[in-house]
Design a protein that fits this description.
By secondary structure, this protein is α+β, with helices and mostly antiparallel strands. It has two domains: 4-42 and 140-201, no CATH class; 45-138, no CATH class. It has helices at 4-15, 22-39, 90-96, 157-173, 182-201; strands at 46-52, 59-61, 68-77, 85-86, 111-114, 118-122, 130-137. Strands 2-6-5-4 form a four-stranded mixed beta sheet, with no helix packed on it. Strands 1-7-3 form a three-stranded antiparallel beta sheet, with no helix packed on it. Helix 2 (22-39) packs across helix 4 and helix 4 runs antiparallel to helix 5 (182-201). The relative contact order is 0.23.
Length: 218
């Protein structure tokens, strides 16, 4: 595996510009790590967390402790482990439950979805109900020279993170006034090709909400 220092050294060798100190390059490498996690569902970022419903609102804030990034894909009640349907958006939830209108409609909780900051559920239970949810969390940033980006396949460490950092560096260095950004384009294409490989590599093992078929809406 490549360490943060090894990835940084690769960037320094490619860029050869003393203005770009370690801290700047590291910030680009970590931006690349976050970009990878936002573009491809990485199995090592699968996580779980508890949440409590309200009895006076159809949504609650997603707990900070979740370190939530995206893709809520499973939910069940803690008390009796009853499965709650998970939808990938509020509009899909409303497609099955016609009386869901972002208001307090009381009853046993049947379905849920999530935005970036809010956990939304239908119906609103009459007692505070603990739920166990599964989702993808944000990646841990690389801050120590010896640390490795273990959430990514070893063979793509340089292709993803070094190329992204080079792309970000050259996008600043090549101002594009004359319309030519040769290295910016070069390293973005290399990163983009690596992202495609990453998506293929993790084509299996990705957890998503179960698709709700139109026949299920009857």
């Amino acid at each position: 595996m490549a360490t943060l220092k090894e990835i940084r050294d690769r960037v320094i060798r490619n860029v050869q510009d003393d203005l770009y100190i370690d801290e700047i390059i590291d910030s680009f490498i970590n931006e690349g790590l976050q970009r990878c996690a936002s573009l491809v569902l990485l199995p090592d970022l699968m996580s779980t967390g508890d949440i409590l419903t309200s009895i006076t609102a159809y949504s609650v804030d997603i707990p900070v402790a979740w370190n939530f990034d995206r893709n809520l894909y499973m939910c069940s009640t803690v008390a009796d482990k009853r499965k709650v349907k998970v939808f990938s958006s509020a509009i899909l939830l409303s497609g099955q439950y016609s009386d869901f209108d972002f208001s307090v409609n009381t009853g046993e909780i049947e379905a849920c979805t999530a935005t970036r900051t809010q956990f939304i559920y239908y119906r609103v239970p009459t007692v505070v109900t603990p739920l166990l949810c599964a989702f993808y969390k944000k990646p841990t940033l690389l801050t120590v020279d010896s640390v490795e980006p273990s959430i990514l396949p070893e063979f793509l460490h340089y292709d993803l993170l070094a190329n992204f950092a080079c792309f970000k560096t050259y996008s600043e260095k090549e101002d594009g006034i004359d319309g030519v950004q040769i290295n910016t384009t070069k390293y973005y294409k290399l990163f983009d090709a690596a992202i495609t490989e990453l998506g293929i590599y993790f084509r299996t093992g990705q957890s998503r909400p179960t698709p709700i078929r139109r026949s299920d809406w009857v």
